[in-house]
Structures are given as C-alpha cells and as structure tokens.
Amino acid sequence: MMTEPPRGFPTEEFAGRLARARVLMAAAGLDGLLLTTEPEFRYFSGFLTQFWQSPTRPWFLLLPADEGAPVAIIPSIGEDAMRRGWIEDIRCWSSPNPADEGLSLLADAIRDRMGPVARIGLPSGPETHLRLPLDDLDRLKRALPGVSWTGDADIIRQLRMVKSEAEIAKTAHICDLVSDVFERLPTLIRPGMSEREIFRRFKIACLRAGADDVPYLVGGSGIGGVGDIISPPGERRVGAGDVLMLDTGAVFDGYYCDFDRNYSFGSPDDAVRNAYRIAHDATAAGFDAARPGAQARDVFHAMNSLISKALGDEDGAGGGVGRMGHGLGMQLTEWPSNAAWDETEIAPGMILTLEPGLTIAPGRVMVHEENIVIRADGPRYLTRRAPPEIPVVAA
Amino acid sequence: MMTEPPRGFPTEEFAGRLARARVLMAAAGLDGLLLTTEPEFRYFSGFLTQFWQSPTRPWFLLLPADEGAPVAIIPSIGEDAMRRGWIEDIRCWSSPNPADEGLSLLADAIRDRMGPVARIGLPSGPETHLRLPLDDLDRLKRALPGVSWTGDADIIRQLRMVKSEAEIAKTAHICDLVSDVFERLPTLIRPGMSEREIFRRFKIACLRAGADDVPYLVGGSGIGGVGDIISPPGERRVGAGDVLMLDTGAVFDGYYCDFDRNYSFGSPDDAVRNAYRIAHDATAAGFDAARPGAQARDVFHAMNSLISKALGDEDGAGGGVGRMGHGLGMQLTEWPSNAAWDETEIAPGMILTLEPGLTIAPGRVMVHEENIVIRADGPRYLTRRAPPEIPVVAA
After folding, report:
1. Band of the pLDDT at A228, cuts 50, 70, 90?
2. Architecture of domain B162-393 in CATH?
3. Mutation site, B84, B92, B131, B134, interface A, largest A CB count within 10 A
C-alpha cells in the first residue's frame, strides 16, 4: 500500500492554474471567467466542502484576465472556511436571500475588476452547467448591460483535463486503496447475501481502508451477466451461477477513482468466461493505444475493434454505454470521452478510464474498467489490473 | 427501532403527483414542464440512481399539461433501469454525443406532444438550476422557434414541499436510524482520536444501522465550540475541553435526514453548557411555532427571539447561517427557509429542520438541529430529541 499523499495543494499550484487560465483568457479575448460549479470553484480556490449538496445558495468565483486577484463571492456561512485558503478577496452576503442572492455583490465585483464594459466567459459547453437559477442569470444580465456573456472558450476543459503531479497522487492513492478492497472482497462476502449487503460491506471496507467517501457505488448481479450498470443494489440474493459486478467512485481529498470488478459465484460458464477475457483483452488494447499524440477516439477504436472481431459482430460492443471510458479527477466522469467522435489529443498528465463493454446475451452485459495516467512515454495503470480470468467466489 | 419502510412508491403515487402538477399547469397557462434535475426527474418518474453524479449526460422529463403521457428522453445507458419504472414513453439516444446531446429527440417530443406553438415551464426560481449546458439551451430554443419558455410558476416547489405519507416514512426511518447512532456515538469514540477517525466511525455505524449512504457529514471540534459548520473533518485530535459537532445528511431510499449533535469532551465550561441550553430551548420554541397556518418566518422569529433575549444581543443569533432551518426530503435542503423573509405557510405534510445557532465567542458557534413533520394538529419530531444537557464523553 502507498503512503497517503498530503491533503490540499500548495498555493503555487493554484497560482499556476490561474496563470494558465489567464494566458488562455488573453488568447480568447476574455476579460474574465465566472465560475459557479463545485469542481471549477474548487480547482481555482482549493475550497473543499460537501456543503454544495445543498442547492440553496450560489457560490461565485470571478477570475479577472488581468493581474487583479480572483474574487470569491460566497454565502457568509462559508466565510470562516474560505479564509483558511489562498483566496484573499472574499465578499459575503447573508444567504439565503432570494431577493438578492449575491447578485449585487457579484455585479459590483465585476464592475470593480473589469469596468462597466467587459466580455465574460461562462462555461457553456458539453458536460457543464450553470449552478444558478435561470431567473438570477437574467437579473445579472440586466444589472450589467455593458457586459457581454459568452462561453469559456474551452479554457476550463483544457486546464482540468491535464492533471498535476499532486492531483495524480490523490487519484493514484484512492485507486490503490480500492484495488486492495476489490481483491479482498471475496473474503468479505458469501453466497446468499443480498446485493445490498454486499455493497454495504464493500463500502465499509473502503472507508476502513482510508477512502474519505464512496459517493458512487452501482452494479448488480445476474445469472450469466448483469442487466444494467447504473442501478443501485437490490434485495436479490447472489448465488451459484451469478456474475456480480460493482462499479465504484470512491474519493480521497476530493479526487475520484472510477472502476469496476466482476466476480463469478461458482464456476463461470463458457459465455461468461469468454466475455470476461474479451473485455480484459480490450482493456489491454485500449491501454496500448492511450499514448501521447493519439486521440481519444483511437483508444475507443482499439477496444471496439478487438471486441467486434472477437464477437464477429459490430453491434455487440459497448453495451449501450455510448463510449469506452472517459476522463477522471475531481469528478467521477470528465472530458474527454473514449468515443468514435472525440478527437481530443491524449497528453501527458491526463487520467483516463478504460471501460470496454460487450453484450453477452440480450439484457446481459460485461463491462471492465481500469484507471490509467498518461506519461510522456506511455500510459501507466493507477488501478491494480483485474486478473485475466474472472475471480470466483465459492458458491 | 422502526421497521424498514418499503422501497419505491406505488404507481398511484406518481400518477397523483402528475395529476396535481397538471392542475397547477392549467392554472398557470402552461402547456408543459421540462425537468432536467435529479430530484425533479425522480419525483415524477421514480428513477433512482447515483449515475447523476456523472455530469456528462443530460436527462429530460417532459410533462404535458394535457392528458398525454409523460416522456422521458434519456441516454440509452439508462434504458433498462428506466423500463422497470412506471414511465412508458421512453426515448433514448446513444450518449455522450455532443453534436446532438438528446436535443433533436427532445425537440421532437415537444412538437409531438404540444405542437409547434407551446408555453413550457422550466424551474427557474430560488434553489433551482438547469442541468444542461447553456449552449444546448440556446440550441433547443433555436430548434423550437414557436415555443415560449418561462418559469415553472412555482409548481415544483409547491408540490415537493408537501410530502406524502410514503415520503414521510422514508425520512422518519433515516432520522430514527441516525438518532440511534448519535446516541451510541460516545461508546464508539475516545479522546485522542482525530476528527477524521471519529467521522469515519460514525459513517460506518450509520451504514451498519441500515443507512443507504451518508452523502453529507460535516462538522468539527474546538475548545469551547466549533469554528464553522460546513467543513470536512481534519487531522485535529479531539480531547479535554473540546466541543465536537457532527452534522449529517444520511439517506434511505433517496430521502435525507439532516441533523446534528454536539458532545463535550470532559465536563463543559459554563459558556458551552449555557449555549447548549439556549439552542435546546430555541429548538423547542421553533417546534411550538411550527403549526399549520403559521409562516416559516414565524418559526424563525420564535427561535431567534429566544436566543436574542437569552444573549441580550441581537447579533449573537444565527452564527452566519442565514436561516434557522429549512425543508428536507429528496434533497439535504429544500424550500422553505426558516428565515425572516420567508412567508411560506406551514402546512401538514411538510418536513422541516429546526436549526437554531448562536455565537458563543468570536469564531465559536453552537448549532442544534432537529427534523420535524407537520401534522394537522401540530408538529412531531422525526429525530429523537437531543438531550437537554450536552452529552459528555469522558476525557
């Protein structure tokens, strides 16, 4: 097991992120970025709290393109915690206050830092959203008639896709912890347990091993394969002939792993054994393709071709997932997508999941998932590779 | 301990929710509602999955105001799970596909059900957001030039604020489970443990007791009171003279509790003892005020007046939280707010938190929180009431 990496980041890391954002803002002709979502707010401020689960209060981070300091406009409930971080210009209002939910403060900050006429980027592209009521966006626009609002010119995506060594260490750590739990899982469960009980034991084992939380744990069980890969566990009792699959996003210091493991209760039949091997081989093909200079779609095609050839069937690949892996970091899924349409260039520092899947029989899928980091000379596994044959739980 | 209530809801419950929404849509002159966020999608469809943590794919639920059936427009990865629910008109696309992320399907569904000219409501008010990239909202508007987009006329808020008996049973169950864990906590921890270790033990105990998950667990410790109430646990070791506070949102079948408990390590000093009693008394005052026909602000004023009088100081109340409790259900925090500005009428079926807080000393706060349900003849506690004196952990 690895040593636990340090929590948080040195101030230089945030200063570097901001400096890179400024170069890109200048190139895009933006006077600033306005961020409203948790990962973006945290990426530049370091502010980590589960309080974002409450939808009541907006949080704003304003990044001026010039040398002016970033401004956090936040509910006063967050002030003490925020002052422990590196952001110095913190402006608070007593929230909730639907009559003026931080909008006057925000408008003032924009006028202060950028003047009455400015071009401000809001993340607006794929996999983003605005964490602000639509009515409040309208109010903000009316309060700042000289401001033109536009997308973020892909700046956030470009920055967040390439991870620092400190970020990689956090994901590597949670991948290592959870790999260990997956390896020990057969000793923690037995036939006749419900899916719910198995998932509970897995989650407790992750917490004991040092995961901060296990926000994502889905999967299921079924004779000869699982039916879908996004459902919560049910009361079904797992026994002989079943395939059990758990797919988890556990976190350490705000960084996710996202991978799965499959188990056979009793000896697997040939269809399961074969599907598992194909998915395992496809993962290896994806790994080999995930080199700097390749594109995300190349990683997809490497996995998809192997599966299609093995099945002699174009339609069997994928299992309805729409892609075969994705970026990973502060969120369970991030850009890019290992998909036929994604031309994102693979670069050192990216963390990706490899997630090949195939249909074993109607309504029965087999999905594998591993996490990798891209280095200058090629990929490295962050997860401990799944065994080449499906692990068996005595049944 | 209670028996575990059944999971899910009967179809009639969803049909009733839809029928009530239709009455309100007709009154507001809306041809339909378009929902994009997890609680809203789940409220009308019953679809429960942690997959929403992935920001990649939008999910849409279209509720026509007329007798037409609701339409779910969803990524194909969700199709199998969705077909196990009560929604029959399910339309899927292979997602992610940023070139057309479900928008053509959605636009077709709107044209099918409402014709080319329609008035569609999007939740746009306080505590809402649109879970869709801004660029895609623009595309949707361009694809449907005859559609006028407006707010949801407060329909979602009105419906969700009043809970059904089945919903109340789920929240009551998780409140009961977690009350039990809080009562046992002093036997699970000891002086010298770090906050992180204490929080981990608490979380594991909740999972063992039958919580599905503990998505929210914040708090901290400090000599004579805690510093803020939204931070994650740290490495600080808790010992003599400390107040320890844990505030948790655990879930059962998609419904939250949200309450906290305070502990003193060793005998509390007078300031802590006194602050605890004031917060306890304020909770009782809030409880007494939370009767059908009162307003949310009355509940606030009952708590706030008691605290202000006890402190002889208007400014000591609240501790920067901005309100003294809120609605609770599918989300950790929901409408209304127990705040001076909130005129929402308290009605039977509402679930509220009572959350009075006060400043003990600069940077030291004491916050209590209980969960209640409103009945025709008055409130009932769903949490097992905190003891009237701060519980002591031997130190």
Report:
1. confident
2. Alpha-Beta Complex (3.90)
3. B134
